[in-house]
Each structure stands twice: as structure tokens, then as C-alpha cells.
Write a structure and sequence with these properties.
By secondary structure, this protein is of the alpha/beta class. The chain has eight helices and eleven strands. The two termini are 32 Å apart.
Length: 305
């Protein structure tokens, strides 16, 4: 049994204004996805599953899937607002699907082995894929297993504005106790600070671990997600036009119920992402340095040719 990389890409079209505008940032024209797939394959992942919207399937297959089919098995599944459990119907005023938890649940029929779920437009670094790949292989496919690669908050900041991050709290045994969303995180003269979920600004030590949506699961998570998603919908989420079923909330519910612990792995790599337009130049420079150091070949495979 291998490992699957699940890439949440349903928001790519709306965030970028169309797939044609996915910005090359690598020294040979690579995009963020290229590095994630490259690192996953190098870490032993043998399958990639993309979750997308059906309305840009043709362009996605032509411009994205075709880049990777020569090196790894690829599947495409769809996140659709009509895909609901329990025979529920979509309200007429609902325009979008139901968030990251729903996106992962959308892949339930495609994935049969341990998997890693990530964002489509982030750079996570090689060590994250290596540690998560080993963790998934150790856990095997039986039972409910959850894991997370977390980053030091100091390695996830932007020089050009504030960011939001999920601040991780750990139990005495190192497992995940909770993830709390902090907003407005920035580096000031007196250190890093951010606003917690109650609106209180608090200091954050540079080594504070935060979630960047790098989650490991066994396939047993799918029926659990369905239960939680149905509970979310019946609890008011169905009627709220913009409500979203987020994966950190689902994981927190599994922790609180005692259904599973979450193993926390840490990465020493710098997370890279284009939160602000000005971030692009620094991301491109960082990727160029990694290529010059020999961490990555350029181009990666032939995906950028």
C-alpha cells in the first residue's frame, strides 16, 4: 500500500481569475504545485488526487494534470455543492461548496490508502513530505489515524502584511490538543504578535507551531467526516449561505470526542506562499536559492518545459 497526495484545488479558478493566471515562480517557470508534486513523489507517494470544481475541468486537465501524468498516477474528483449526505438538498441561495472539510470528503470514493491533504498554492518544503510520508506508512491503513506537520510561526510570515494562522496547542505527550485561529499575525519591534479567536492580541514565540493545512489521514476518516458534516449541516450550516465546514474544526471535534489523537510532526523548512502581490519576488528568490544550492533540479522533471 502506498500513500496518496490529495490537493485541494477547487478554489484555484476563483483566486487566480482563471488557471491561465497561475503565476510561475520557479527559476525555470515552475508553479507552486510543481514543487509539491515533486516532493511528494520523491517521498514515495504513488498517487495524486486533485479536488476541483467541475466548471474548469477541461482547462485543469490540459494545463495541470497533463504536467504530472508521466510521473505519477493522477485522479480528478469534483467538489460540488450538491454533494451532501443524508439526502439533504442544497438551498437556492447557496452559491459555493462547503469548505475544506467538504473538499476532503469529496474524495471519499477515490482514495483507498493513507493520504496527505494540502493546499494547491503553497510551498511546504521537502522535509514535510518526507516526515509525513514515513508517518503514513508507519500508521498503515487500518483504524483512524490523523497527523499534522506544523511550522514555526516565524517561518510562515510575510514581510508585506499580516497573516492568519492556526496556532497549535499540544498535550504533554506531544499530540495535538487544539488549533486556534489567530489573525493579524505580524512581526513587530517587540516580537511576533497576533489576535486570538476572542479578539485579544497576544505575543507568540517565534517557535510557536502553526498549522498550514498539511494534514495526514487514514481512509477511515471519511465516514467520520460524513457524520460531522451532517451534524454541521443540521446544526444550522445548511441554511447559512456562506457557512463552511473547515477541516481544523472537524479534527478538533474528533479530538474532543476521543475518536483519535493527532500526531504532530514539525518542519524546519520555511513555508512559502503569495499572500500579498509583493510576496512573489521573495518567493521566487527563495526558490532560486534552493535550485542554486542543489536542493531542486531546474527544471523539475520536464513539467516546466
Amino acid at each position: 500500500m502506498g500513500n496518496t497526495l490529495l490537493i485541494l484545488a477547487a478554489g484555484m479558478g476563483s483566486r487566480y481569475g482563471g488557471l491561465k493566471q497561475i503565476d510561475p515562480v520557479g527559476p525555470s517557470g515552475e508553479v507552486m504545485l510543481d514543487y509539491s508534486v515533486f516532493d511528494a513523489v520523491a517521498a514515495g507517494f504513488d498517487e495524486v488526487v486533485f479536488v476541483i470544481r467541475r466548471d474548469f475541468e477541461k482547462e485543469f486537465r490540459e494545463k495541470v494534470v497533463s504536467r504530472y501524468e508521466r510521473v505519477v498516477r493522477v485522479q480528478v474528483v469534483f467538489q460540488e455543492r450538491e454533494d451532501l449526505p443524508g439526502g439533504l438538498a442544497v438551498p437556492s441561495d447557496r452559491e459555493k461548496p462547503w469548505g475544506t472539510g467538504h473538499a476532503i470528503w469529496a474524495a471519499r470514493h477515490a482514495i483507498t490508502q493513507p493520504f496527505l491533504a494540502i493546499n494547491a498554492d503553497d510551498f511546504y518544503g521537502r522535509s514535510a513530505f518526507e516526515s509525513m510520508g514515513a508517518c503514513l506508512r508507519d500508521q498503515g491503513g487500518n483504524g483512524l489515524h490523523l497527523s499534522l506537520v506544523a511550522y514555526a510561526v516565524n517561518n510562515t510570515l510575510s514581510e508585506f502584511g499580516t497573516v492568519s494562522r492556526g496556532v497549535c496547542r499540544q498535550n504533554a505527550d506531544g499530540s495535538l490538543a487544539s488549533v486556534e485561529e489567530y489573525s493579524g499575525i505580524e512581526k513587530a519591534e517587540d516580537g511576533i504578535r497576533g489576535m486570538d479567536s476572542q479578539g485579544i492580541t497576544r505575543p507568540l514565540a517565534p517557535e510557536t507551531l502553526v498549522s498550514m493545512n498539511f494534514w495526514g489521514f487514514s481512509p477511515a476518516v471519511f465516514p467520520r467526516l460524513e457524520e460531522l458534516f451532517l451534524e454541521f449541516l443540521k446544526g444550522g450550516g445548511l441554511e447559512a449561505p456562506k457557512s463552511e465546514f473547515y477541516i481544523p474544526s472537524a479534527v478538533s471535534a474528533l479530538i474532543d470526542s476521543g475518536a483519535s489523537q493527532v500526531r504532530v510532526l514539525s518542519s524546519t523548512d520555511h513555508w512559502l506562499g503569495v499572500t500579498y502581490r509583493e510576496d512573489r519576488a521573495s518567493v521566487a528568490e527563495a526558490l532560486s536559492r534552493l535550485a542554486q544550492a542543489g536542493t531542486y533540479p531546474t527544471p523539475l522533471w520536464s513539467v516546466s518545459e
